[in-house]
Every structure is written in structure tokens, then in C-alpha cells.
MORN repeat-containing protein 5 (Semnornis frantzii), 131 residues
Amino acid sequence: RMEGQGCYTLPTGTEYRGALKDGMFDGEGELLFPNGGRYRAIWHRGVPTQGKYTFADGLEYKDKKWHYCDGYDRRFYTEICSGLKPAGISQLTNLDPPRKIPGGCYDCGDGFYNPETRVIVDYELRFLRNA
């Protein structure tokens, strides 16, 4: 079993870096997600006892007093940091500038969906899956 300091990549592409004991996350360690987010935590027998999640854009998740995109303030984090755009140039995602979506396609979170071919490709236009 894994023991000591190490790195482990899960089948989803998420990577763990940190302390391992008896094959489990145990001690200080962090999960690095493919989308750029990270979760730093103190682990005990594979379960986090305390931790902090940071989104890819640097925003730290807070359990209390969360003011990001709540019912009263629907702005994206980049709009909170940089201000709102003029009328007619609204942001549709947190990305600024937004991704360029190929004509007739839809952004589905991990790539683009083309309804004519019924194929989803990643953001570098590599095949992901059939829809």
C-alpha cells in the first residue's frame, strides 16, 4: 500500500499530492482538479477533517457569508473584480474574454457540442465523445 509522501492520479484526471498512510490520504495534502481548482486539506484515514477549496480563478470558497453569485448578486467573480461591462456586452460565463464557440455549436462545460455531427470535442477541438 502507498505510504509516505507521494502523488496519485485518479482515473478522472484529479491528482492528489501529499501524505499517504496505509493506502489512504492521511495528513496534509491537496487534490488538483483538471479544471484548475484545488482542495487543500488535512486528511485522516481518507476523509478530510478540515480544508479549503480554491476555484481555478483564485476565488476561495467560504462556507459562511458567501457573496459570490447568490440570489442577491448574480455577477460572476470576474465582474465583481473588474466591474460590469457596458450594456450589450454582458458576460455569459466567468471567463473574460469568453471562449470562441464554433458556429452552430454549444459550450457544454468540458467542450463544444455540434448538433449536426452529434459529437462533443474538447476546447482544443479533440474528440471527447459521441452525444
